[in-house]
Amino acid sequence: xxxxxxxxxxxxxxxxxxxxxxxxxxxxxxxxxxxxxxxxxxxxxxxxxxxxxxxxxxxxxxxxxxxxxxxxxxxxxxxxxxxxxxxxxxxxxxxxxxxxxxxxxxxxxxxxxxxxxxxxxxxxxxxxxxxxxxxxxxxxxxxxxxxxxxxxxxxxxxxxxxxxxxxxxxxxxxxxxxxxxxxxxxxxxxxxxxxxxxxxxxxxxxxxxxxxxxxxxxxxxxxxxxxxxxxxxxxxxxxxxxxxxxxxxxxxxxxxxxxxxxxxxxxxxxxxxxxxxx
Length: 278
Known about the structure:
It contains 11 helices and 9 strands. It is of the alpha/beta class. It starts with 5 loop residues before the first helix and ends in a 5-residue tail after the last strand.
């Protein structure tokens, strides 16, 4: 670097990170920060370092600073208009992929609330025979998702939709519907990390009323109509509301499987409609 050594720069950044992140998280962020600095000409290193330092002091996530996030086996472009993909979301996508490999090959998949497009892209890359649809209420998110899909050479049918308005009526029947919807109550904002609450899109984080199951109830209604008879619904959950979410679906004629993530938290739900009229 021009006016500051690499060691001193990383030491300074680590002191900032240690205020908000675990040791392992800090190390990963430092690695990303240095790779970002090193991607510029040497004469620019000092300027880029100082910008990263300023951003981290504002608790801006490193993924937004670099414009990069990793999901499954690929790199995504991310900005403040979309959530940063989480490991548990990767686990949800992997669950679907494994089910499809061992059970059946779906022809129609719909990702509700696609954000960066991470789930839809991961599924299309692994289940190439499927026609994949992806929707979001945010036009900014759809722009980013379309960019990611095009960059990765995945054909996905994107469209704008507010699932709380009863969902679209023109889609074909689906074999799989998947969603990681908003599930955080607005009152929980003070308990959240500043790098999340201060930078990630609230539209994708928070429910719009005082019901943490608001979006799940809307998705249940749409999935009942949109899934084929053998179709499956996969959902990511707030661990605090996993049991109520599972109970809600079971009370509405769905057979469910609740799965824990790598941290041992109940975070994923698989639902199959039990159509007793057949």
